[in-house]
Structures are given as structure tokens and as C-alpha cells.
Design a protein that fits this description.
heterodimer, A: about 325 residues, alpha+beta, Multidrug efflux transporter AcrB transmembrane fold, 2 domains, 4-stranded antiparallel β-sheet, two-stranded parallel sheet, elongated, B: about 525 residues, Hypothetical Protein, Haloacid Dehalogenase-like Hydrolase, Chain: A, domain 2, Gyrase A, domain 2, 3 domains, 15 helices
């Protein structure tokens, strides 16, 4: 099995921790940039959160005349109406109508107007209407669920490891979530419920990564009682390097497959995942690990717990 | 260690069998699956995948409470009039019904009457003769609950009348109803049907005045001005009708669309007490006009030529065939206790759903194939064994979703992707650990044992951390997020089982069979 050696390094002694300041700078820039963009530019909210109408119409009579459609729809007095052609046949048009002032009923009436003015030459592949009430609730539920999930992760890691690890996991996962928000804000990609699912998936991967590394740190704390924390953290990253590379590449190819053949609906999800995979791996190695150096890990608690495996086999 | 206890082997065999049996229906076509028993069905696809319509409705419970107060006002009025008690300032304000009894000697008497009026309302009387009635919080809540329950029932009846395939009508939260209609391309007709309260009442026209007079604001007490349902030449735009309801639509037992003089009309039939009331009303008021009012709009106001004693009649108006059909359907299904509002609508055409499934399936299979190949390139036979475990993981996940009757949605597929990633990661962790242990000088079986045992702690922590997060997402997230949480949870449980237990058995079995002395890992 010579292949493995070529693919996966072992016994490496890269000094990851040395570059922590550079990493912290990158992290700080990413987070600040994300916050700035979120504050200044905000998000391109999809109708899930902003409310409004989304219609995917397909022309039954050859390619759709976007120009004429735009003219018709903008004359309805429904406020901002955006049209976008997609797909390869030129027959599919995505129509977005901003949330209408007034109650839920005005939304429904607006949809009726859109359909009436487009006439009979279209079939509707997708129609979504989200009223103002529901949009707000979806935002609230989503934010609440994500925040609670992050906190729960931190508590579990605290419970299984030590509080320092809990803080580290929380910070690095938070970092991944915030920068993904930032990505969506800067690029103006549509932010909808699928995006929330993607962010959750990213958080899941990132935590998995972080826990794997932390687990090795915990083990090494017991094994090498006199090693400096600096060397110990480096050792842990190097020891798990082969695994990190292999896991990231497998997930990477899966996500690439989703991105290129997963169709229109999964595109936003795949882009977010791709970003999350990169940023999540980065944060596990360069944020979660070096952070531990600033905590006094050798409080004795972890080392006191005898390692049962070592006792029985040696 | 290399000898697995019998129960473990039996467990793996049983679980794998469960997986294969319950996942199998997913390979069948729709028609074939329909012949299977109810407990053995393929996983149901969300509307985003199979196409259909999703409607989130809200029952206007505030309307019910207002109605309740208005009718309390009316009963106060009727009672005080009947007892000849002089009063002023009668009206509903906020959640109170206020009235002032003018004569001091009447107050004690009035207090008695008003107290007995409604057991749910409490009376408060002040020294100046003003009294107020208020429903207890519990009574209001009960009323709201009942309205939501009843709405659910009426919505169900209306949709059943339309004969759609496998509709799902569920209550959500306090006052919401989720309607899911697979296969529906255009929910407009359903929205129209659900948007009508369909409260039918018969009133006498007030012949003491004209609607022109009433439009100037001179409406006699006890009467009201109602618009016509349809504007038609030669007919009035509005009518002045008596507030008193002669007969209500709640006493209807049947209604059908039919024709009269070649025009579509709606026939109706009352139950016994309705028939009697209707008979009395038409006998006593022969020659007058009877307004047929639907949702506060006058459909028509024909003259009562003769008493209608049989309890049945027809409603004529300017109906199209479709309108006559819809009206009779609404009357058969009954009136909603309160208006419904559509808060959210999502309709996915069946072809788009099919496209999503196709693209999703192709992407998943391609992704899976790439992972399988990558694992074999890197780990050879051991990689293939890990691939087998991962495929079993997917089978188990599919089986669990089918068995529990869960719904697979697009965000659910995201959960599957995360699960697959973590399952692969588990095996990579194990193999890398075994490699390390072997390099540290262990024999093959000892390296395998150490590999699994040590990696287990890591895998367990990583899985449980994610499970904890998934549990919270399920608890607090809304629709799509929950679908994600469900597949993630089931997938992670399956992954713990397959990557730790099943894969280990396969690896040990293989090493023994080939009598290997070293692990084929560098």
C-alpha cells in the first residue's frame, strides 16, 4: 500500500501553532469584514424571511420574452418586481415580487394580478408566498435554534472535556457561522431557509473537526505529562493531519458533486457548504487549537484520570 | 477480543435485516408500493420533492371573541328590554360589555338578570349604576380552542369534498392549520373555497326604509345595510335587512347544485327544526322579501309568495356553474366559525419536484461513488469494507425514515450529506489510528483493537455533540430545519452502529480469513 504514503503524510512535524498570530489576524479580518458587511450591506433575503412572492414560470410557447414581461409586471404597481431567466432553454423565468404593504390578503391578491397579467402562455412550476407574519417568525425560530444549538455544543464539550475546550469549540464554531453569514452578505447570494440548513451543516462539520482535534489534545495531555503545551498542540494537529486531509477531501468531492449536478435548488446550499468546509477546517486547526495555549490546561483534572487503555495493555 | 459475542453478531444481522426490509419498498414503483401493507411503505417525500401545495392558515380567533361579545351585547339588550329596565351606554369595549342602568330601583333586579345571562361571564357593578360583564380568561380560551377545532373539521370536510389525493390537514400551534396537498398544481380554487366563511343566514328585508336612505346613514335600529354579492343591472347594489336571523345555515342538512329555468341554482334542505322555523317565518311573512345572506353579502332577496313548509328550497342568484357547485359544497361542509387567512403558500409543480429529485439523486450517487473510489484508492480492501459500512448506513437511514413515516425534504438531503461525511470520517479516524498503533509496534489484532477502542472515544464525542445540536434544532426549529434535524439524528445513530460495530466485524473477519500478519496499511 504505497499509495497511502503518497497521499497521507505521517510523522510530520509542521509548526502550526507558530503561525497563530497570522491566523488570528485572518480570523479577525474575516469576522470584522463579515460584521461590517452584515451591518452595512445586509442580506439578500429570500422570500422565506423577507416575505413576498416568488413565481417560477415556464413559457409554453417557446422562449420567454423577458422584456415584455418586465414591462407588464412593472405596470401593476406592486413595487419592486425582479425577473431573472434561468435554466438552459430560455423558457424559465423566476419572478420575485416584494412584500406588499398591508395584510396577508394583499399578498394573495398580488399573486392573482401577476398570474392574470402573464396570461395563459405560462405554466407555474413553483409559487411561494410568505406573508409578513410568517417571515418574522421564521427568522426568530432560525436564529433561536442556531444559537441554542451552538450553546448546547459548547456545554457538551465542557462536560466531556474542560471548560477551556468548550470556549474554544464555541468560538471556532461561531467564527464559521459568522463568516458564512458574511459570505452571503458580501456576495449577495440569496439567504433563505436552505441557507440555514447549510449553515447548520457547516457548524456540524466544524464541531466534528474540532472535537476530533481536542480529543487528541486530551489524550496527549495524559500521555506526555511534561511536554510544553505549544509542542503538545502541534503534535495533536500533526497526528490528526492525515485524517483531516482524507476526510476533507471526501466531503469536498461530495459537495462538488452537489454543486455541479445537484441542480438549481441545491446550488446555494452547495456554495455555502464548500465555503464552510474550508473555513471549518481552518478554524479547527488555527482557531480552536491555538486558543488553548492561552488557557492553563494543566490544571491536573485531565491528567488525574488514569487512562484505562494504557494501564491494561502496557 | 477477536471473538465477538453471539448476541452482537445476532444484533448486527437483525438490524441489517430490518434495514434491508424497510428500505426495499423505496426501490419499487409507485404502483407496486401501493400494493404493500401500510407498515411497509417507501419514505414519503416532502412537497418540495414530489410537487404539491402547502398552505399555512390562521384562524382569526380575535373574530370569535368579538362575535362572542357582540352576541352578549345583544342578549343584554333583549333581556333588559323584556324586563322593561331603562338603560344607556350599552356596548362592547375592549373585552368588556358595559351598560348603565338608569333608575336606581332597577339596579338590583338588573344585576340578577345580567348575572344569570351567561355562566362564563362575571358581572361587576358600580355605585353609579354602570355595570360590566367580562368573560373569564378560561372561557375565552375555551371558545378560541373550540373555534380552531371546528375550523379544522370544516377545512377537512371542504377539502375531502374536492377529492384530492392524500391531503394532510393538521393543527399547528395555537391557532394555525397546515394543509398539505400533494400533486395539486394550482391551489387557487382551494384558496377560494377556504377563504369563505360560508355563513348563510336568512333575514327579512326592512321595508320601512330604502337603501338610498340607509346609505345616508339613516339606518333604523335593529336593521343593517348589506351589499349585494354580485352587481347586476336592474338589481339594487345594497339592501337594508333586519338584523334578526330567521333561520341559519347551521340547520342545513344537504345542498346540491341544480338548474332552475336553465340557470344554475343551489338547492338546500333543512333539518326538522330548521324546516319548522323556515315554515313559520315564510307563513308569517308572506308577501315580504326574504334576503339570503352569505358572509354579510346578499345573494338575492326573493318575495315570499307562499309558505315553504317542506323545509327545502333553492337559492337563485347570478351564479356560474362553478359558483353554484362551490356554494353547495360550502353549504354541505358547513360554515367556518371564523375567517381563515393564508399566511404562507408554497406550491411546487410536479415536474419541478421531479427535476429536484433527479438532480439530487444524481448528485448523491455521484458523490457517493467518488467517496467509494477514494476510500478504495487510499485504503484498498479496508476502504472497500468501510464503503460497505457506509452503504449499510444509508440503507439503515432510509429504512428508519420509512419505518417512522418521516418525510424527506431538500434540507433533509443536506442532513444525509452531513451524515455521510461523518460516517466516512469515523472510518478514517479508525484506520488512521490503527495505522499509528501498528507503527508503534503492535501486532495486527492488537492494533485493530487499539484502533477501534481509541478512535471510539473521539467518534462518540463527535457524534454526540452533533446529536445534541440536532435535538435542539428539532425542538426549536421550524419545518425545514426540523427535517434536517430528523435525518441527521437517525443518520448519526446509524453511523455509530455501522462504523464502529459492523465495520469492525468485517475487518476482523477479513483479517482472519486472509490470515494476515500485518495490516495492509503503511
Amino acid at each position: 500500500m504505497q499509495l497511502i504514503d503518497r497521499f497521507l503524510p505521517h510523522g510530520t512535524k509542521y509548526d502550526f501553532i507558530r503561525y497563530r498570530w497570522m491566523a488570528f489576524c485572518v480570523t479577525a479580518i474575516l469576522i470584522l469584514g463579515s460584521f461590517t458587511s452584515i451591518a452595512v450591506k445586509g442580506f439578500n433575503f429570500g422570500i422565506d424571511f423577507a416575505g413576498g412572492i416568488l413565481v417560477e414560470a415556464q413559457s409554453t410557447t417557446g422562449s420567454a420574452d423577458l422584456h415584455a414581461m418586465r414591462a407588464t409586471l412593472n405596470n401593476l404597481g406592486l413595487g419592486e418586481v425582479s425577473l431573472q431567466e434561468f435554466g438552459t432553454t430560455g423558457r424559465d423565468v423566476m419572478i420575485r415580487v416584494q412584500r406588499q404593504e398591508g395584510n396577508e390578503k394583499t399578498q394573495m391578491d398580488a399573486l392573482g394580478k401577476v398570474k392574470d397579467s402573464l396570461g395563459a402562455g405560462f405554466t407555474y412550476r413553483r409559487v411561494e408566498i410568505v406573508g409578513p407574519k410568517v417571515g418574522g417568525e421564521l427568522v426568530r425560530d432560525g436564529v433561536l435554534a442556531v444559537c441554542l444549538a451552538l450553546l448546547a455544543i459548547a456545554f457538551y464539550v465542557w462536560f466531556r472535556f474542560e471548560w477551556q475546550f468548550g470556549v474554544g469549540a464555541l468560538v471556532s464554531t461561531f467564527h464559521d457561522v459568522i463568516t458564512t453569514f458574511g459570505l452571503f452578505s458580501i456576495t449577495g447570494l440569496e439567504f433563505n431557509l436552505t441557507t440555514v440548513a447549510a449553515i447548520l451543516t457547516i457548524a456540524g462539520y466544524s464541531v466534528n473537526d474540532t472535537v476530533v482535534e481536542y480529543d487528541r489534545v486530551r489524550e496527549n495531555l495524559r500521555k506526555y505529562k511534561t511536554m510544553s503545551l505549544y509542542d503538545l498542540l502541534n503534535l495533536a494537529v500533526n497526528e490528526t493531519l492525515a485524517r483531516t486531509i482524507l476526510t476533507v477531501s471526501t466531503v469536498f468531492v461530495t459537495v462538488l458533486a452537489l454543486l455541479f449536478v445537484g441542480g438549481e435548488v441545491l446550488r446555494g446550499f452547495s456554495i455555502a457548504m464548500l465555503w464552510g468546509l474550508i473555513i471549518g477546517t481552518f478554524s479547527s486547526v488555527y482557531v480552536a487549537m491555538p486558543m488553548l495555549i492561552y488557557f492553563n490546561l494543566r490544571t491536573g483534572k485531565i491528567e488525574e484520570e488514569a487512562e484505562p487503555e494504557a494501564a491494561s495493555t502496557n | 477480543m477477536s471473538n465477538f459475542p453471539k448476541w452482537k453478531i445476532a444484533l448486527v444481522a437483525l438490524v441489517s435485516l430490518f434495514g434491508i426490509v424497510f428500505a426495499a419498498p423505496n426501490m419499487l414503483s409507485r404502483e407496486q408500493a401501493d400494493r404493500l401493507p401500510a407498515w411497509l411503505q417507501p419514505v414519503s417525500l416532502g412537497l418540495d420533492l414530489q410537487g404539491g401545495s402547502y398552505l399555512l392558515l390562521e384562524v382569526d380567533t380575535a373574530y370569535v371573541v368579538r362575535e362572542q361579545l357582540t352576541s352578549l351585547v345583544e342578549s343584554v339588550r333583549t333581556t333588559l328590554r323584556k324586563e322593561k329596565v331603562k338603560y344607556s351606554d350599552l356596548g362592547a369595549r375592549g373585552d368588556l360589555v358595559n351598560v348603565r342602568i338608569i333608575d336606581a330601583e332597577d339596579r338590583a333586579k338588573a344585576r340578577e338578570f345580567l348575572r344569570k345571562l351567561d355562566a362564563d361571564a362575571t358581572l361587576e357593578a358600580k355605585d353609579d349604576g354602570s355595570m360590566s360583564l367580562q368573560y373569564s380568561e378560561a372561557a375565552v380560551k375555551r371558545r378560541k380552542m373550540a373555534a380552531v377545532e371546528q375550523s379544522l373539521e370544516i377545512v377537512r370536510r371542504r377539502i375531502d369534498e374536492l377529492g384530492t389525493r392524500e391531503p394532510s390537514i393538521q393543527r399547528q400551534g395555537e391557532d394555525r392549520i397546515v394543509v398539505q396537498l400533494p400533486g395539486i398544481k394550482d391551489p387557487d380554487r382551494i384558496k377560494v373555497l377556504l377563504g369563505k366563511t360560508a355563513k348563510l343566514t336568512f333575514h327579512l328585508l326592512d321595508d320601512t326604509t330604502t337603501s338610498e336612505e340607509a346609505q345616508k346613514g339613516r339606518i333604523p335600529p335593529g336593521s343593517m345595510l348589506l351589499p349585494a354579492a354580485e352587481r347586476e343591472r336592474g338589481l339594487p347594489e345594497s339592501y337594508v335587512v333586519r338584523k334578526r336571523i330567521e333561520v341559519g345555515g347551521d340547520m342545513l342538512v344537504d345542498s346540491k347544485p341544480t338548474y332552475s329555468d336553465g340557470r344554475p341554482v343551489v338547492s338546500f334542505r333543512f333539518n326538522a327544526s330548521g324546516a319548522k322555523k323556515f315554515g313559520d317565518a315564510t307563513r308569517e311573512n308572506a308577501g315580504k322579501f326574504l334576503a339570503i345572506v352569505l358572509d354579510d353579502k346578499v345573494i338575492s332577496a326573493p318575495r315570499i309568495n307562499e309558505p315553504i313548509l317542506g323545509g327545502s328550497g333553492i337559492i337563485s342568484g347570478s351564479f356560474s356553474v362553478q359558483q353554484a357547485q362551490d356554494l353547495s359544497l360550502l353549504l354541505r361542509a358547513g360554515a367556518l366559525p371564523a375567517p381563515l387567512q393564508v399566511l404562507e403558500e408554497r406550491t411546487v409543480g410536479p415536474d419541478l419536484g421531479a427535476d429536484s429529485i433527479r438532480a439530487g439523486t444524481v448528485a448523491s450517487i455521484l458523490g457517493l461513488a467518488l467517496v467509494v473510489v477514494l476510500m478504495i484508492i487510499v485504503y484498498g480492501t479496508l476502504g472497500a469494507l468501510a464503503d460497505l459500512a457506509m452503504i449499510l448506513n444509508l440503507i439503515l437511514l432510509l429504512a428508519a425514515l420509512s419505518f417512522l413515516g418521516a418525510t424527506l425534504t431538500l434540507p433533509g438531503i443536506a442532513g444525509v450529506v452531513l451524515t455521510m461525511g461523518m460516517a466516512v470520517d469515523a472510518n478514517v479516524l479508525i484506520y488512521e489510528r490503527m495505522r499509528e498503533e501498528q507503527r508503534n509496534g503492535r501486532t495486527v489484532m492488537s492494533a485493530i483493537q487499539a484502533g477501534y477502542d481509541r478512535a471510539f472515544g473521539t467518534i462518540f464525542d463527535a457524534h454526540v455533540t452533533t446529536l445534541v445540536a440536532a435535538a435542539l434544532l428539532f425542538q426549536f426549529g421550524s419545518g425545514p430545519i426540523r427535517g434536517f434535524a430528523v435525518t441527521l439524528t437517525l443518520g448519526l445513530l446509524a453511523s455509530l452502529f455501522t462504523s464502529v460495530l459492523v465495520n469492525r466485524m468485517m475487518v476482523v473477519g477479513w483479517i482472519r480469513w486472509r490470515r494476515l500478519k500485518t495490516l495492509p496499511l503503511a
